[in-house]
Amino acid sequence: MSEDSPGVRRAWGWVAHLRAGGTTPWRDWSGAGEPHGRILPGAQQLELLRRLNEAGEAAPELATRVLEASAPGRGRPDLELEGAVPPLAFGPRPVDPAGLPDDELLRVAAGLLAEDVHAAGRREPQQPATRRWWRRGRYRLAGDVVLTGPVRADLLRQGRPPGGRGASVLVLGTDLATMYVHAWTARSLSVGAPGWREWLDPHVRRGTLPVRIDLARIARSWSDRVGAERVHIVLDPAELPRLVGVRRPLATPVPLSADATDLARRVGQALGLLAVPTEKRALLRETLRPRLAALPGPELVLPPEHRERVHERATHLRDALLRAGYPVHGDPDSLLPVDRAGAPEPSDAGVLALALRLLLEKKN
Amino acid sequence: MARTVLLHVGTPKTGTSYLQDVLFRNRRTLANQGILYPADRFDAHFLAALDLMRLPWGGLEAEAVGAWDALAAKVRKHDGTAIISHEILATASRAQAGRALESLGHGDGAEVHVVLSVRDLVRQIPAEWQENVKHRHGLSYGAFLDQIRDPERATRIATWFWGVQELPDILNRWGHDLPPERIHLVTVPPRGGPPNLLWKRFSLAFGLDGVDLDLEAERANPSLGAPETALVRRINRAANRELNPADYRPLVRELLAHQTLSRRTGSPRLALPPDAHPWVSDVTSSWIAEIERRGYDVVGDLHDLVGEPPVREYADPDNPSEKLVAAAALDAIKALLLESARLRHNEERLERELLDTQLALERSYLRPTYRWREKLVRRLRGSSAGRGLLKVYRRARGRSSREA
């Protein structure tokens, strides 16, 4: 690529145009410019910068970072611009960057966002309030982690850590369709997960429940340790304050849109190369999640074709819990899936739009 | 600042495991000669490569955070020759290659050489498919060949294959900033040549001639025959859903593939299908012409890349001889039985040890002094004054743990 040719000069001209905030697509570009770097950036990087310019005003530092980035993970290598170089006998075919799938641009964007999240670091940890030992209602929380997380944090803030002698085990759940979404969300924001459908479809097809939302299994496991009488299934969040001995309502999860969750998953993959697992998890939950929660968009819902099977699975779950005789707080039928408005899967275009927005939010 | 850096960037299946094993085990001997092989564990350069290329690898990447910069810092600190070697570096992008060269001191006083060991596609294609199978894939050989022959190269399999195998493209990416005399190709000799010829070529390329090295290999990446590979592929398809990746590696890849099936002799070799030879021959000829044109230093013979002619009797692993697969499966079952027996014996031994420990613990509980102390503690717990006394006693004794 170091050869000087009209095609290469045209490409360098386009690079300068994009650096200056231009939005002209490659195929419409006819200007020329001088080489301005070691190598011509890849088509993915150039097209991502063009999309950023379309979406807002990319700071020069951001433009440089985009052009120097390599997409993390496995996938197509950095591609040459079609028309900039003569047809090559080797290497991947040059492309028109406008024709690149959003997924290719997202790989680069997710890598850059991971760097941003890593650089932003974790929030200052909040000092837990002083323990209030005289309070009644010792508890442990188990079940759907998207539900238990905010409750546990809220109670800690109130000086009510979980545990203690004779604590009741509160197994939190909701309708099974939402719990599937929660389980994937929790994985995306921790150890990492495949794409939504890639993860969900085999579970539904085989009728398996991820461990984190298999309430019957969780309850049984606690029952073996502490006795069935101390295990409570909580399906109505309004019952929780009474069970843990507080007066006011407890925190509920702030929902993420389908696209925001998928973006978190992709950023998490790239973050795994920048931070050790515990730090990665904290960065995703404490630094990235609040930013994503502020972005609008439809929530993820179960795809319609899975409703029947999930309903059947939820019925089994409800019956197993009732058969085991645990106290159930809330209507057992609330485990059955309900129709909710939302997106049955994230869209690459929507995820990319969010990524562009987050990249532009950070003014370098 | 290292004066010379020899950066070996691939390709896979060219004796790299053997080379890295020799370098790792002999790093003290090498250090005495002023040659640095900066690795505190065998896979140190693999982790550094994952970090450089931000490549997730089944969770291993968590151990790779910051590994490239740490490696490069050691190289820059060394005054002499340094060697870095990992075959997955072949897939680095031009930007990543540029960052790697810069971090090793290129343009800042260090003379960086890129070494690429290369083998004919006639052997590389089946070997790459076999590697895929040994990494849990259930893809048939035919589907693999279709994907790598598709000019679009849209799939991950094809992208990876050409990323680590397309020699002129790898050299474009890694050699962009280097003069051709600092790029060295080591060709893998054809099958049946002198056994140590490849090592001699490596030794020449890395300037190791005259260094007294222990060449006894501890690590290698052995190959499987066609029916054995077909068997592993069937195992993948049958067990992948239930077998965790953490269990797959020791049980299927190590125990079955490497320690059992690779030792079977007499099975038909996994080979390139005869109808793929003309295509491979065209690709190879164009590579040889391009490499000759560029004037790189070649250790060995570029025509080693031509490869052997088609095999007379091709064993298709997608339609294997069921008799041979069954024989391989029998060996696999035997290996699994022996492993199960070993684990059972281990379990029995651990159970015995646990029982002995429990009995010893019970004996200590039965001593009268223990019973008296236990009774006292129980009484003290019954009153707030008693609990206070216990607290004072424990604090004075320095016991950090509390009652459950």
UniProtKB/TrEMBL annotation, chain A:
It comes from the Bacteria. This is Uncharacterized protein. It comes from Nocardioides caricicola.
UniProtKB/TrEMBL annotation, chain B:
It comes from the Bacteria. SUPFAM superfamilies: P-loop containing nucleoside triphosphate hydrolases. This is Sulfotransferase family protein.
